[in-house]
Amino acid sequence: MSRTPVDPTTTPAWQALTAHHEAMTPDLREWFAADPQRAQRFTRTVGDLHVDLSKNLISDETLGLLLELAEQVGLAERIEAMLSGEHINVTEDRAVLHTALRRPAGATPPLVVDGQDVDTDVQGVLDKVYAFAEQVRSGAWTGVTGKPVATVVNIGIGGSDLGPVMAYEALKPFVQEGLEVRFVSNIDPTDIAETVADLDPATTLFIVASKTFTTLETLTNARLARAWLWRRLAEAGAIEDTDEARAEAVAKHFVAVSTALDKVAAFGIDPSNAFGFWDWVGGRYSMDSAIGTSLAIAIGPDAFGQLLAGFHAVDEHLRHVPFARNVPVLMGLLNVWYVNFWGAHTHAVLPYDQHLHRFPAYLQQLTMESNGKSVRWDGSPATTQTGEVFWGEPGTNGQHAFYQLIHQGTRMIPADFIAMAHPAHPLVDVDAPGRPDVHELFLSNFFAQTKALAFGKTADEVRAEGTAAAIVPARVFSGNRPTTSIMAPALTPSVLGQLVALYEHITFVQGIVWGIDSFDQWGVELGKKLALEIAPAVAGDRDALTAQDPSTRGLIDFYLTHRRASPDADD
Ligand code: F6P
After folding, report:
1. Quick check: 528 and 547 in contact, CB under 8 A?
2. Ligand 1 atom closest to 528 (CA)
3. Nearest C-alpha to atom 6 of ligand 1 is from which residue?
4. d(Cα 52, Cα 417) in Å, to the nearest integer?
5. Is the pLDDT of residue 554 over 60?
6. Nearest-angstrom CA–CA distance, 536 and 409
7. What's the mean pLDDT when you consider all of the chain?
8. Does the annotation count 147 as an active-site position?
9. Which atom of ligand 1 is nearest to the CA of 212?
């Protein structure tokens, strides 16, 4: 593997793309009119996902040049390097093997990395997670009073929260009746306080999920949860006020997921109630590792297995399908096209599926923690713009909030629209004229939005509606606003796995073009360290306060004045 990233801006393809962009006058109306096959020619399939790229600002030449760029930056070699376990996470000297988490049992040839049989390790943990999930689901796992678990509370943050919560919300119809999973992530005490307030400790199981088991938020919340458990069980007369009784309560009501099993034991959780994973799984790439234990309990091993199979199908696609038909490669290259040649700063992801309401939040960590970098993997400065801002909300809510800017703002915002053919709840509006199927109304909005963004509305069309001349400009839609439409038959566990893997690999492709290490996250460290340094000042230490800069000191002063002035407010 080459240690020096190719500078994409020096490649012939980059020069050609620059000239191509300068010469391009996008006209999707004209392009579609001139080429009746355009939709078909630019539609691709990956697994169950139907991906229509035709409303992007592309021609055959554009795709050809982007594919040349992929070749000239060595994308194929880098994909192979990742999948085979090379240490492509250079700054942490680690392999990047989230794809190994979803290899089917018995896959051949076996994956051996750094002398370790990865397949056997993965299967061993998965079996343990599945056995535990079955115990909880069947009621065989009981709390200290002998009652089965009704509520699982996952305590974790970042990748130890966003993936499981997103998937739990997405797969609600697959959750076993009588089981609920809640998620606590924020160190804002409101989060844990309100999440457990109405829970019965006797039927609550906490999963402390932390790759490092050092994360301030998670360990603080885990301690708060433990204190809550002990207090509430004691109040109910369920445990004695002894160390032994408290230890037994932890053993029955706490399990952990981590790569640091020694730290799990130090917290008081029996290592036999801990599920491991490995440093080659990045936090934001970990929802299909043991970090997904809460999800595996909720939807069960069969559905979790289907989720993994969905991921794997897209991994195979990435590895084997020629780039011209390779969806993650094409979508990653399109993102590069918009960021580097069209100057796009952001990218919207707009799921027309209420169950995917946390998908944009999940993608924010995946994409921005991965590609928000200014240096390349060899430490040299990035040679072009890197990670764009990913954001979004489910449709149609977004339509009534920010779509105005996507339709008529001065900035280009490429957008991915995602929808399922089958609704989770096939409701008919029986009291409305024509008794419309509500999912059809919903999807009509999806189709309408991508159409409006692509084809717009001309001044002539606006005038033809009898609009007063002075108002015409405000009612014109420029069109030529790029979108990708992704559809699948239904939001099954497999389809969810496919969607997530698709975006994982899109992110990877972009990182390779830019020559960055998409798997480290040094940018989150400074703030964490400063928070610990500032904490004494916030707690009232005058010397620590004096050591702060004037702005920070002023803010802490404001806090101290108001918090200390009304101590009763805390009661
Ligand atoms: O602070 C960022 C981060 O390191 C993420 O990359 C990670 O997903 C999150 O914190 C949580 O880390 P952990 O799982 O080790 O608690």
Report:
1. no
2. 1
3. 283
4. 10
5. yes
6. 45
7. 96
8. no
9. 15
